[in-house]
Input
Amino acid sequence: MAISSVAAIREAIGVIESELGPVRAPLGMVLGSGLGGLASQVESPRTLSYDRIPHIPSSTVQGHAGTLVVGTWQGRDVIVLSGRVHRYEGHDLSRVVLPIQLLGGLGVHTLIVTNAAGAVNSDYRPGDLMALSDHLNLQCGNPLMGANDERIGPRFPDMTTAYSRELRTLTLKIAAEQGLRVHEGVYAGVLGPAYETPAEIRMLRAMGADAVGMSTVPEVIAARHMGMEVLGLSCLTNMGAGLGGETLNHAEVKEVAGAATEGMIGLIAAVAQTMPPIAVRDEYRSRFTTQLLI
Ligand code: HPA
Output
């Protein structure tokens, strides 16, 4: 059952601001498997566990902390979602994207979404990174299904430029300067939780995918629905099934993600420092929060 989103967003934001005080940050980040280390770098952190926030389902996956962290990072005011929930955990997609809608409702302008993914493009290597240029929604559903509320976004949101070209170009430029292997490619978002078969990996490649993972796509749809700019980054933790010759397991995914974390965090840090100034979107914030502007 889909929940009433505007009411849910307002109630959840009300709890966040009554626990943490007013939250104003133009930059939001979602940290995927093994990438939670960035959250510990946030200065003057104010944190709230997901289980304290109404309507947000708690993550059940190892490596996903499930904490909202508000503070400053690289000189920017940020809200970090450390850990995410996935559709394969059994949650309705409208609940999976609620944390993203909270960021939108708090006025976040730009969202950086990270994930761990398998490489479908055989030119890629484990440990490489990929800036998402586009995605394939293969999660058998859309988070915007059901009645639409125009206060959140339009009925038929455009997805032509789901991922900001400007932020991606900046990311690739910085990656080249830092000597990091960062590709630009298409992310296939599948349901999971079983990893793919080798035949499915070949199918995904034929469909135009460069990487595959079990998250991100619903989040980006929800973010674009609310007009946020999005940068998507994958850490390629393994070759897709059948491409590397070995079987896949989550421990390996976490290990490679952990090893690549430093490079990924360094890259995001440089992007956060270098990207143009962004401001909290008060027109969105005022729809979902009753706190006076500060
Ligand atoms: N497939 C799907 N999701 C993933 C993979 C994979 O190979 N690696 C990390 N997340």
